[in-house]
Amino acid sequence: MRAINEIIIHCSATRKGQAFTVADIDRWHHARGFAGIGYHYVIYLDGSIHKGRPLSQAGAHCVGHNKQSIGVCYIGGLDEAGQPCDTRTLEQRNAMLKLLKTLKTQFPNASIHGHNEFSNKACPCFDVHAEFGGVQCPASSPT
Asked: What residues pair up with 6 in beta bridges, in sequence order?
């Protein structure tokens, strides 16, 4: 397994309410010359979490950070006019928190970031640190 020290949150840069799948993103990324989908997880509008690239493989989602990170993408990120906007549904918000807690259990030293911290983009179109900066791995239960 790769050494993971970052979890990077992305949006798909698609308009609010438009449903897309891992297969769609895989096609988009192939068209851009990637070996396949660059994200490790994709969160659909209904909050379901889908696997993309295997965790054992470096992602293709954040230049300079792929080797040591996990890429998490939610479907959305643009309003009806195509402008950057936090379009996450309540289900997506809840699923993202659940996924991040799970990943922090597996990779307790990994920090959580928005793609916009490493690139001149609005992605993921919300303040990751304000929302998830305090996410820690769950405390182990006493024995």
From this structure: 69, 111
Query: Per the residue annotation, which of 29, 39, 65, 74 is the catalytic one?
Result: 39
Number of domains in the chain: 1
- Domain assignment present for residue 1? The answer is no
113 tagged catalytic: no
Residue 6 phi/psi, 5° resolution? -145, 145
Told to judge if 125 belongs to the known catalytic residues of this protein, a careful annotator would answer no
Block means of pLDDT (10 residues each) for the chain, length 143 residues?
A: 94 97 97 95 98 96 96 98 97 97 95 96 96 73 41
pTM score, whole prediction:
0.93
Residue range(s) defining the domain that contains residue 41: 6-128
Per the domain annotation, does 105 fall within a domain? yes
* Structural domain includes residue 134: no
C-beta of residue 138 within 8 angstroms of C-beta of residue 101 = yes
